[in-house]
Amino acid sequence: MDIMVFAGLKEKIGDTRITLDIKNEPTVKELKETVYRQYPALEGDVFQVACNESFVKDTHILSKTDEVALIPPVSGG
């Protein structure tokens, strides 16, 4: 599953995309667990998951054809 990453997450990973080897259709919670496991530099970072340009909850089931993005909190003024 290809996943876009933004802001501070992108800086820590060093790329704008990550690819996770996920079988079946994971929930958002399972996706987050896999991200933390495969990218330990992100451990403790908080981010939301967007699926097809809408934020989704941890119970949402993702499809391999979904456009998925990890978006950390953003502040602005």
From TrEMBL:
<dbReference type="InterPro" id="IPR016155">
    <property type="entry name" value="Mopterin_synth/thiamin_S_b"/>
</dbReference>
<dbReference type="InterPro" id="IPR003749">
    <property type="entry name" value="ThiS/MoaD-like"/>
</dbReference>
<dbReference type="InterPro" id="IPR044672">
    <property type="entry name" value="MOCS2A"/>
</dbReference>
<comment type="similarity">
    <text>Belongs to the MoaD family.</text>
</comment>
<keyword id="KW-0547">Nucleotide-binding</keyword>
<dbReference type="Pfam" id="PF02597">
    <property type="entry name" value="ThiS"/>
</dbReference>
<protein>
    <recommendedName>
        <fullName>Molybdopterin synthase sulfur carrier subunit</fullName>
    </recommendedName>
</protein>
<dbReference type="InterPro" id="IPR012675">
    <property type="entry name" value="Beta-grasp_dom_sf"/>
</dbReference>
